[in-house]
């Protein structure tokens, strides 16, 4: 567990940086949602931040999130899933998460709609878009979007709210800018092409090292982990999960 005072200080700093980036872009700070990405960190850290007023938390694994939901209980918070979602876990995810950022196919969206309907609730979803064409990364190709958008207009319990992007790791924050700008342009083109604007009102983009650039390019939701919680330990595979 992180020392609560240090955790709160980093969270306050990130909130100030978000507000400043918003003002520089001529935007209202409250128009940007900060999702605190708590993956690998204990439920106690979530409880400390929630007590201080942080509402939105993001996890990238369904089971890890379920474990933390058990501990946190009925606290007033909004759970986001930001990781790749396997289809065999989709119904469960739709029953417990409030927002899912990683929809990458019409089939997955349909399953989430069925899962949320069966649980008698609604779930907000983002389509994760792969603009880099990286074979290893998840996300829908722009060519897949018409299919997914058609499906979204048939769904009732899964409500599409926007597009999400995880750009390739570059040398600095500025290297993300062309991807952020491209996601915004893609959204604008889809709306100009007839997709109802309310389905694409949000852009989920920006992480610890590039959220200020993302806000300058129109992010409405930023997903910030290590700048709030500290660096994450190395996973057992030896592959680093640090962004920087
Ligand atoms: C881990 C993660 C983040 C947060 O990354 P940080 O660099 O720790 O801010 C954001 N988005 C996704 C999809 C992630 O998996």
Layout of helices and strands, plus pairs?
Blueprint: H1 4-24, E1 33-37, H2 43-52, E2 56-59, H3 62-72, E3 78-81, H4 90-96, E4 99-103, H5 106-118, E5 123-129, H6 145-152, E6 158-165, H7 177-192, E7 202-204, H8 211-216, E8 221-224, H9 226-229
Parallel strand pairs: 1-2, 1-8, 2-3, 3-4, 4-5, 5-6, 6-7
Helix pairs in contact: 1-2, 2-3, 4-5, 5-6
The chain binds pyridoxal-5'-phosphate (PLP).
Describe the model.
- This protein is an alpha/beta fold.
- It is built from nine helices and eight strands.
- It has helices at 4-24, 43-52, 62-72, 90-96, 106-118, 145-152, 177-192, 211-216, 226-229; strands at 33-37, 56-59, 78-81, 99-103, 123-129, 158-165, 202-204, 221-224.
- Strands 7-6-5-4-3-2-1-8 form an eight-stranded parallel sheet.
- Helix 1 packs across helix 2 and helix 2 packs across helix 3 (62-72).
- It starts with a helix and ends in a 15-residue tail after the last helix.
- The site of pyridoxal-5'-phosphate (PLP) has 14 residues, from strand 8 and helix 9.
């Amino acid at each position: 567990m992180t020392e609560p005072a240090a955790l709160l200080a980093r969270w306050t700093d990130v909130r100030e940086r978000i507000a400043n980036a918003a003002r520089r872009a001529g935007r209202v700070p409250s128009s940007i949602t900060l999702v605190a990405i708590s993956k690998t960190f204990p439920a106690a850290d979530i409880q400390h931040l929630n007590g201080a007023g942080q509402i939105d938390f993001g996890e990238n694994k369904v089971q890890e999130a379920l474990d933390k939901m058990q501990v946190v209980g009925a606290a007033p918070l909004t759970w986001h899933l930001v990781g790749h979602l396997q289809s065999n876990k989709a119904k469960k995810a739709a029953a417990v998460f409030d927002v899912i950022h990683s929809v990458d196919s019409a089939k997955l969206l349909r399953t989430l709609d069925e899962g949320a309907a069966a649980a008698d609730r609604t779930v907000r979803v983002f389509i994760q878009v792969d603009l880099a064409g990286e074979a290893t990364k998840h996300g829908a190709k722009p060519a897949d979007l018409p299919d997914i958008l058609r499906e979204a207009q048939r769904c009732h319990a899964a409500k599409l709210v926007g597009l999400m992007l995880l750009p390739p790791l570059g040398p600095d924050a500025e290297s993300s800018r062309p991807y952020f700008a491209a996601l915004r342009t893609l959204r604008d083109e889809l709306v100009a092409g007839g997709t109802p604007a309310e389905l694409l009102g949000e852009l989920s983009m920006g992480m610890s090292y590039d959220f200020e650039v993302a806000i300058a390019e129109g992010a409405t939701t930023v997903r910030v982990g290590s700048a709030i919680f500290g660096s994450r330990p190395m996973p057992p595979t030896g592959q680093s999960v640090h962004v920087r």
